[in-house]
């Protein structure tokens, strides 16, 4: 027994010695010649093997920042090599400019009336008009849009009217979005393929990836439509951003991610939000086609989003566009931006790189626009905005019963039935006796009578 163990031991040592000699005789400058070529790569990667230790912190080969795509310079003139979209003729260009001009006129009125206490809340679009209208024009009207809260221009490009916008902002009985259940600026329209905006930051990003996945599974819309999600660079700091990017790139789903990098996440400047090269640098990490575009150049935005949409649908996976712009206005009516940035900085940006002035110069150089037309347009739009504002302000709020309607799809749950009955009893008991309720009920169509005396 001991002899057999000893023989086996010596035999094993001989084999090991032979293997050692074979390996040591292999040149050290490369892989063993006897290894098959696939051993030169890792099991789950096509990354080449190197012997030099090297760290990197940029997605560009030379370590420089990601470039920004532009067509028009700040004076509205095409830069060398800039490609003017062939489909943007005089009619299309005028429509884009008119939609851009409309936004600050709406903003001026709504911001002021909010300050007068006639409106609960408002968010302006100052400085981001080119990003909104340029991207809206490049999309198909039946692409699904999930906005953050500064995308009114996208919705109005699709046919959402001034009356719709005003009625929704006041939450009156003609509110086409939520029948008075939502805050101002929280728009939504099934007709215009614009999903309802919600207040929590970045929740729309993974939702968009899910919507796009549903489009991919629909044989009638597969290869035809994509889901487009708008968000600010601040929202890209939320975990939902990464969940949506991972979903869209891995499953995958045709999701067009459009980051509005306007320089501030409320009061936090971009240089305090991330250390890396903006939001665009994150796209390659998820294997996405990515582009950074001048968000104040409406033609560059149009070109970039049009091609991004094509890639998104053709490959059925996520594409990332980062639009570099500047938020000229305050974050919202709840914010005073001059508490964290100098007023002069804002005035300089408005003067040196105004997206409206840039595009207007482009139009005038081609004889497609004039100063007289500009004055007439602004006067006409201002009159229309004021007229629709007065109409919406005068309308009552919806009937109180609508509080419980169109909340859930399908059969109404028992809890809503109980709550409606309980509110009806309370209104019947205190509606005419307690002054705060009495005053508030007068603002509603029907003054709550439909709940106090429900019909069988």
Automatic annotation (TrEMBL):
Cofactor: thiamine diphosphate
Alphabetized Gene3D superfamilies for the sequence: 3.40.50.970
CDD domains found in the cross-reference section: TPP_E1_PDC_ADC_BCADC (cd02000)
Domain Dehydrogenase E1 component, first and last residues per copy: 99-400
GO molecular function: branched-chain 2-oxo acid dehydrogenase activity
Its EC number(s): 1.2.4.4
InterPro entries to which the protein is assigned, alphabetical: Alpha-ketoacid_DH_E1_comp, DH_E1, THDP-binding
Signal peptide, first to last residue: none
One GO process term, biological-process aspect: branched-chain amino acid catabolic process
Organism domain of life: Eukaryota
Keywords from the named record: Oxidoreductase, Thiamine pyrophosphate
Family designation: Belongs to the BCKDHA family.
Function: The branched-chain alpha-keto dehydrogenase complex catalyzes the overall conversion of alpha-keto acids to acyl-CoA and CO(2). It contains multiple copies of three enzymatic components: branched-chain alpha-keto acid decarboxylase (E1), lipoamide acyltransferase (E2) and lipoamide dehydrogenase (E3).
Name of the protein in question: 2-oxoisovalerate dehydrogenase subunit alpha
Protein species of origin: Daedalea quercina L-15889
């Amino acid at each position: 027994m001991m002899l057999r163990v000893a023989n086996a031991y010596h035999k094993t040592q001989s084999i090991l010695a032979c293997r050692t000699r074979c390996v040591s005789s292999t040149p050290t400058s490369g892989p063993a010649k006897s290894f098959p070529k696939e051993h030169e790569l890792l099991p789950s990667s096509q990354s080449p093997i190197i012997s030099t230790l090297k760290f990197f912190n940029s997605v560009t080969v030379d370590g420089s920042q990601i470039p920004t795509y532009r067509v028009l310079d700040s004076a509205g003139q095409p830069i060398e090599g800039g490609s003017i979209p062939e489909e943007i003729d005089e009619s299309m260009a005028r429509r884009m400019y008119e939609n851009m001009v409309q936004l600050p006129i709406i903003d001026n009125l709504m911001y002021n009336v909010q300050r007068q206490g006639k409106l609960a809340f408002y968010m302006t679009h100052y400085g981001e008009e080119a990003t909104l209208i340029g991207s809206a024009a490049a999309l198909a009207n039946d692409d699904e849009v999930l906005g953050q809260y500064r995308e009114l221009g996208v919705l109005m490009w699709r046919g959402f009217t001034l009356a719709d916008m005003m009625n929704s902002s006041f939450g009156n009985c003609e509110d086409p979005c939520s029948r008075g259940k939502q805050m101002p600026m929280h728009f939504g329209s099934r007709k215009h393929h614009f999903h309802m905006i919600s207040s929590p930051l970045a929740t729309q990003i993974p939702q968009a990836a899910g919507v796009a996945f549903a489009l991919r599974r629909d044989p009638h819309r597969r290869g035809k439509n994509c889901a487009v999600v708008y968000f600010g660079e601040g929202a890209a700091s939320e975990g939902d951003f990464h969940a949506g990017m991972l979903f869209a790139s891995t499953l995958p789903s045709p999701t067009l991610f459009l980051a509005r990098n306007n320089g501030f996440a409320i009061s936090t400047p971009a240089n305090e939000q991330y250390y890396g090269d903006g939001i665009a640098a994150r796209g390659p990490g998820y294997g996405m086609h990515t582009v950074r575009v001048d968000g104040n150049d409406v033609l560059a935005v149009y070109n970039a989003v049009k091609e991004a949409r094509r890639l998104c649908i053709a490959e059925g996976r996520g594409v990332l566009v980062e639009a570099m712009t500047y938020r000229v206005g305050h974050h919202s009516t709840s914010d005073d931006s001059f508490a964290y940035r100098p007023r002069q900085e804002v005035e300089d940006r408005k003067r040196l790189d105004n997206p409206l002035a840039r595009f207007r110069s482009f139009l005038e150089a081609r004889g497609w626009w004039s100063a007289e037309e500009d004055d007439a347009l602004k006067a006409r739009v201002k009159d229309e905005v004021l007229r629709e504002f007065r109409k919406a302000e005068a309308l009552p709020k919806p009937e109180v019963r609508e509080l419980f309607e169109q909340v859930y799809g399908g059969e109404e749950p028992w809890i809503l039935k109980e709550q409606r009955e309980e509110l009806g009893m309370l209104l019947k008991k205190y509606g005419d006796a307690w002054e705060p309720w009495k005053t508030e009920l007068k603002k509603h169509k029907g003054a709550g009578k439909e709940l106090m005396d429900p019909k069988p």
